[in-house]
Amino acid sequence: MDDIPYLARGVNLLGTDSSVLVSSSKYLNSPKLREWIALIALKKNGPDFPPAAEMHQLIPILNELRDFDHIEALFTEERKVNPKLDSWFNEWFCSDYAIDDLKDCAPGTVGGIYYDIAKNGNYEIQIVPNFQPKTQWEYYSLRSGQTHDYEHILTGGGFNYMGELIPYWFRLATIHTHIQNKELAGEMSVLSILGTMRYVIRTMLHYPQIWETALECIQQGITIGRQSDAFWMAKMEDYWHTPLEEARRQLGVRGAVDLDTQEAGDIWVEVRK
What we know:
Largest sheet: none
Distance between the termini: 58 Å
Number of helices: 11
Order of helices and strands: HHHHHHHHHHH
Structural class: mainly alpha
Number of domains: 1
Shape: globular
């Protein structure tokens, strides 16, 4: 034992007759996911492959790995002990609006802020194309996409690549705060943890000059997620005409500060001025 390096002790390699990689982890067993993680972790940013395209690749990869029947069972059990989640599913609200529906919202209101950002940034307001969800998982996924931009506004995360860290880490914290079954919370968080690790790893490897900004965003997202009510289940569309600070108060958003991350975001995505 003394001749084995300390950090190498305890390794017990298992034999296999398989000609391909075999692991107890379904994630490691996926060649597509292994390739995706290596790509998004190690690459530098460039205009030929924008970050949104990375998520477009990831979603179907994860769908191949999910046990949807088991996830449905987990949601059903969680609803028995989580009245807020049960009410959210019972309402089954799905939004269907165009950005021009917000054009009359006053400046400084949630809707007014969103309208200006969407118009000036030429953003698509439906990250996930509208569809009629048939399962609890599909409903959770649809509403997560429909409320993502509102979570940017409410948590103080700017609409740039560093600002994305705040709603990402808010989600990772709030789901585990307000979902009792941790296996379910984990299933609900897979997309977020893989999505945010792109920013974390690439910032340290290639853009360390903005690492402190990344840390500030991560810390703020976690703080909001752990201290706030489960406002990710709120009907955000009811707050279009509410001033931002009042909306935060009514929704139970705590710890939010509007951070200016535009310069750091431009550095991360390699915007040349």
